[in-house]
Amino acid sequence: MSFVSFFDTHTHLDYLHQFTQEPLETLMQNALSAGVDKILIVAVMRKDFETIQNLTALYPAHLRYSLGLHPLHIKQHTLADLDCLEQFLSQRHKNLTAVAEIGLERAVPELTAALLWKKQYQFFEAQLHLAKQYDFPVNLHSRKSHDQLFTFLKRIDVARKGVVHGFAGSYEQAKRFLDLGYKIGVGGTITYERANKTRQAIAKLPLDGLLLETDSPDMPVFGFQGQPNRPERIENVFQALCQLRAETPEKIKEVIWQNSLHLFG
After folding, report:
1. Which CATH number goes with the domain that contains 197?
2. In this predicted model, what pLDDT tens digit does every residue of 23-66 receive, in sequence order?
3. Residue 77, annotated as binding a ligand
4. d(Cα 131, Cα 21) in Å, to the nearest integer?
5. Of 33, 128, 178, 243, which one has the greatest count of Cβ atoms within 10 A?
6. Of 227, 211, 229, which Cα lies nearest the Cα of 140?
7. Is 215 annotated as a binding residue?
């Protein structure tokens, strides 16, 4: 089998760069040395769009990017931000490969107050329609909102589908997303033995429905709590996945690489 690399399908590399103050060259060399050949940088706010586009342009062979308005920042988002997002999407820059990070957030009580919850719905729906209009896949945020997210995805048929990132839920919840054509993002959660429900789900799901991610600098893997997460630690997620699956590591790596390229490459 030919050499197969990793594709980290969900990072905030711009924030990792800002937080650690490490040169982008160092961050990229660490990732490439660990076999991470492709990295998707995911936006959360309009103010980051241009920064992410410029970062990606420095390593066009290895970096891809996605633009979207994250539900955690729903208080700050404006209709002008949606207009700006559409403008970027319509330009179809070569390495812009998804609308992200978008979705619903119910783990922060303040954001489920009536007006903000309604605004979350409005911005999520608008961004799904933009993904559909401009033929992009989506990279989805879902915390304590799998049922609500599923309702949107069933109603608004995004042709290119996408991934439910950083999945932490049951097999039944994951299977519903897979049945709609979406992938499941496998991250640091499975490196913790206490995450039994999610580990069991990931063990049973079809391999062609899985992607790997770090969500760096967030979602640290076991053994690195309290430290910023990094793309090279996708190897830790991969090792945990191999322990849960019946397939050979080579098979797992190959299938997930192809899944990732097909969606975000």
Report:
1. 3.20.20.140
2. 999 999 999 999 999 999 999 999 999 999 999 999 999 999 99
3. no
4. 33
5. 128
6. 211
7. yes
